[in-house]
UniProtKB/TrEMBL annotation:
The active site is at residue 65. It comes from Hydrogenobacter thermophilus (strain DSM 6534 / IAM 12695 / TK-6). It comes from the Bacteria. CDD domains: SR_IS607_transposase_like. InterPro entries: DNA-bd_dom_put_sf (IPR009061), IS607_transposase-like (IPR041718), MerR-type_HTH_dom (IPR000551), Recombinase/Transposase-rel (IPR051491), Recombinase_CS (IPR006118), Resolv_N (IPR006119), Resolvase-like_N_sf (IPR036162), SinI_DNA-bd (IPR010093). This is Site-specific integrase-resolvase. Keywords: DNA integration, DNA recombination, DNA-binding.
C-alpha cells in the first residue's frame, strides 16, 4: 500500500525544507495529492526522487563490545577509511560500542536509516561479526532490498577476539536467564560476575 505523507513528513524523508518541496511542486518536479487544503505526498514517488538524487555515498561501520577496546575500534575505522579513500563522494562513519547480539544499537539503527532514506549505496565492514554476531546473511538480504550492498573487506571469516566472544556469550546467557527464570537484576549481576571470575 502506498503511503501518503503530510508535507512535514515528506520534507524529513527527503531531507529538504518545506519551502523546497513547494518550489519543486511549482516546477513540476513533485505532484502532491490534495486532501482539502492540505498536500499529501506519495511515499513511492519520494523514494523514486531519492533514488534519482542519491549521491555516490557509502558508510563505514566499526564495532567493539566494550569501552576498553576503543583502540581496536579506531583501528577498524582507520582501516576502513583507507579502503574507501578517494572512491566515493561522501563517507558516513558509524560506530558502536556494544555486543554484536544487542538489539537497538544506535550505530546499526543509523545504518538502517541511511539505507532507508537511500543516502548510501554500500556499507563497508572489516568482518561480518562487526555488523552482527548472528544472522549476517539476513542482514545482507535486508540491506540489498534497500539497494545497499554490504562489503566485508577482509572476507567472511569471523575474527572476534576471545574476550569479546566471552562477553557476547555472557550477554546471551544473561538474556535467557532473565526471560526464562524471571530473575531479579541483582541475581543476574551476581551470576554474570561469577561467570567472569571463572573465565
Amino acid at each position: 500500500m502506498n503511503r501518503r505523507l503530510r508535507i512535514g513528513e515528506a520534507s524529513r524523508v527527503l531531507g529538504v525544507s518545506v519551502s523546497t518541496l513547494r518550489r519543486w511542486e511549482r516546477e513540476g518536479k513533485l505532484k502532491p495529492y490534495r486532501v482539502g487544503k492540505e498536500r499529501r505526498y506519495s511515499y513511492e514517488q519520494l523514494m523514486e526522487l531519492l533514488g534519482e538524487k542519491r549521491a555516490d555515498a557509502v558508510a563505514i561501520y566499526a564495532r567493539v563490545s566494550s569501552r576498553d577496546q576503543k583502540k581496536d575500534l579506531e583501528r577498524q575505522l582507520e582501516y576502513l577509511r583507507k579502503c574507501v579513500e578517494g572512491k566515493h563522494q561522501k563517507v558516513y562513519e558509524v560506530k558502536d560500542i556494544a555486543s554484536g547480539i544487542k538489539e537497538g544499537r544506535k550505530g546499526l539503527l543509523k545504518l538502517i536509516e541511511l539505507a532507508r532514506l537511500r543516502k548510501i549505496r554500500a556499507i563497508y565492514i572489516t568482518y561480518p561479526d562487526r555488523l552482527t554476531r548472528f544472522g549476517f546473511d539476513y542482514f545482507v538480504e535486508f540491506f540489498k532490498a534497500l539497494g545497499v550492498e554490504i562489503i566485508a573487506v577482509n572476507g567472511k571469516e569471523f575474527k572476534e577476539p576471545e574476550k569479546e566472544l566471552v562477553e557476547d556469550l555472557i550477554a546471551i546467557l544473561t538474556s535467557f536467564a532473565g526471560k526464562l527464570y524471571g530473575m531479579r537484576a541483582n541475581k543476574i549481576k551476581k551470576m554474570v560476575k561469577e561467570l567472569r571470575d571463572e573465565g
